[in-house]
Amino acid sequence: MKLYKNILRFVLLMLVVALAYGGWYAWRAFPIISGYGAKNMASAVYLQHRNPESVLKEELGFFPVSKGTYTINPEDSSVTGSVWGFAKRKAIYRTGLGCTLVNDLSEAEIRKQHFSLPVIPSQNVDTIAWPYGDKISDSISPVVDNKALQQAVDNAMQMPSKKGDPAYTRAFLVVYDGKIVGERYAPGFNKKSVMIGWSMTKSLTSAIIGVLVKAGKLDPNSPAPVPEWQHTNKEKITLKNLLQQSSGLDYTENYNSPSEATNMLFKRADMGGFTAKLPLKYEPGTIFNYSSGNANILGRIIRQTVGDSIYAAFPYNALFHKINMYSLVLEPDASGTYVASSYSYASARDFARFGLLYYNNGVWNGEQLLPVNWVKETVQPAPANKQLRYGYQFWLNGLDDKDPNKRWFPDAPADMYFADGYGGQNIFIIPSKKLIIVRLGVRTVDENKYLKEVIAAIKN
Predict the structure, then answer these.
(1) Would you give the distance in Å from CA 195 to the centre of its chain?
(2) All residues at 6 or more sequence positions from 179 whose CB lies less than 8 Å from its CB, including other chains
(3) List of domains in the chain
(4) What is the spatial distance between Cα 149 and Cα 454, in angstroms, rounded to a whole number?
(5) Which residues of 32-48 are buried (b: 16+ CB within 10 A; e: fewer)?
(6) What is the pLDDT of residues 79-102, one digit of tens each?
(7) What distances in angstroms separate CA 290 from CA 4, 122, 148, 200, 389, one per listed residue?
(8) What is the Cα 71 distance to its own chain's centre?
(9) Is the dihedral of CA 150, 153, 158, 159 positive or negative?
(10) For residue range 272-315, what is the model confidence (pLDDT) as tens digits?
């Protein structure tokens, strides 16, 4: 009888522990699930004009996000997410701004924010030659094996994810020597469709930092102008440390469980401010730690440097509209700062235009938009990154994990560098091959395979 009671007590104790842990996990994780789903559903429906069913199947079909419920409200252009009725999170759409999660501030306060955005020129881009418009030349360079290239593009579109399930590749585009030579879209998408860049947004942010460096407003080697860091142990963090992901801040980029990354993106109004307050864990410049938080601090620095009166329009007026990147939408957090780490939407052609800007060393239509040495500095490996894979918010074709005598992408040249986003959003820039390759989709595929096939089709 005594043994039975002891066993019963143990079982009850374990049940209490399990319930307590479940409640603790739900309290931390459910808002992230509902926030992630609400934000992505809202952007897909109101910005991309997508069918909600396809979003549930493709973007939101994985566990645990699939356990959420997402309610679309066309009357106020919003989506509310929840998990079994708990942890409701709302994302709102605003014209020209895309979608924003309601966090910390009230919805009314967020909707009252004023953004003075530039007007997109009214012109028939189909009659203007690429890259300043969308008119594509029919002529193909003799060094391009067109049959092999088109087969490579088709293969890339049909390639399964690394796990073997559908990758949902939406766009694949190849630019050779400044001209579009290969282009495919999935059903329902076309050259005007805007698609999420995810962490390719970090590379866009780096370019805006470059614009401010050229204007003499910022210096990569100076302490990052973050007000909270003055007279603290963080005042030694330089702008370059942030660009090279070696700030030393105590930050974890983990999306499989609650972390600084998920708390920042789905629970905070001021994402850059949230990260700036994190403690210093390492000496700045000594440890490479990939961090969306560093990028959002950079985004906050941009806002504070240019001032609120021109901030909303600044990235467009200073750079993106100058390179004819008119489809681009930068989405702000609830505080009104663009989410510099993650939330940009643009067409495949516009992402290719951005790649072309870097390919041409920051020059567009004869104008030097970035500092003369900016691209050269961008592709210098961060000293703290032992694999030599990271520069100024761009990835480099550094060393292989298992064999440091090999490149990360063994079938691509060593000079390749690229913007990279979650799910395999990529802008590959290969100067030695005169190539820019853009791939946009939902799940990561074998990038080395499609790079190899595209490169093989160019006989230069």
Answers:
(1) 11
(2) 130, 136, 137, 141
(3) 2-102 (no CATH), 146-456 (3.40.710.10)
(4) 6
(5) bbbbbbbbbbbbbbbbb
(6) 999 999 999 999 999 999 999 999
(7) 53, 40, 37, 13, 11
(8) 25
(9) positive
(10) 999 999 999 999 999 999 999 999 999 999 999 999 999 999 99
